[in-house]
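thought: fold this chain, then report.
action: predict
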Amino acid sequence: MATPQREKFATQVDPQILQAVRDLARSEGRQLQALVDEALADLVEKRKQQRPRAHVMAAYQASHEEFAPLYRKLAK
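observation:
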């Protein structure tokens, strides 16, 4: 199985954000690069569609199905 072609780039990141991402990668047992790839792919998808992702909308809809009576009471 061939590995995907990679391209290097340089950027600057807020130190607190970078540390949070490093901590997250460590806690998940993943490489920092994997989280950067995931974050960039999520950003591209979000901007491309200009609408919430399908799994987000599914969770939202499930919430309404489960808690509709409570939501109606809270709206009053």
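thought: worth noting. Helices lie at 15-28, 32-49, 54-75.
final: tokens above.
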